[in-house]
Amino acid sequence: MSDKGIYLAVQACEHLNRALLIEEELAEKKDWEIVSVIPQLHAGGSGQVAAYQLFKSPVEVEHIVANAGLDIGDTSIGMHVKHVQIPVRPILRELGGAHVTALKSRPKLIGGERARYK
């Protein structure tokens, strides 16, 4: 966890069902089910391999619900961000030749025309 209370989750490629590498501390805190796999270059991807080496206590989980995400290389992270996603156009649009996009989330608007929202 960073000084700002942010945890990093690194999504695997489709060969690991887009599982996420996170710190064990977060998995335990959220009671997320840990799955058994160690990422490899062609099963997980280079981002997961690097994160696995850098994380304090890395584990894999299949699903999370994140508040926001940064997609590097068009890996389709939307399945792991809360339901109402808002695209964010980052200033840095490429990283090492990979396309960069971002998502943030907001609460759902419910209730129809009679409801009021902030």
Number of domains: 1
Beta-strand portion reads: 25-35%
CATH superfamily: Hypothetical protein TT1679
Question: What spatial form do the alpha-carbon principal axes imply?
Answer: globular
Distance between the termini: 30 Å
CATH class designation: Alpha Beta
Structural class label: alpha+beta
Reported for the largest beta sheet, the result is: 4 strands, antiparallel
Can you write the helix and strand succession as a string?
A: EEHEHEEEEE
Q: Give the helix tally.
A: 2
Radius of gyration (CA) equals 16 Å
Protein name: UPF0340 protein RU87_GL000595
Pfam families: DUF436 (PF04260)
InterPro entries: Antibiotic_NAT-like, DUF436
Family: Belongs to the UPF0340 family.
Structural commentary:
The chain is of the alpha+beta class. The chain has one domain (10-114): Hypothetical protein TT1679 (Rossmann fold), CATH 3.40.50. The protein is 14% helix and 26% strand. The protein has two helices and eight strands, in the order ββαβαβββββ. It has helices spanning 24-30, 46-54; strands at 10-11, 20-23, 34-35, 58-61, 68-72, 85-88, 94-95, 98-105. The strands form two sheets. It has a four-stranded antiparallel sheet. A hairpin with an 8-residue loop joins strand 1 (10-11) and strand 2 (20-23). The relative contact order is 0.17. The mean pLDDT is 86. Belongs to the UPF0340 family. This is UPF0340 protein RU87_GL000595. InterPro entries: Antibiotic_NAT-like, DUF436.
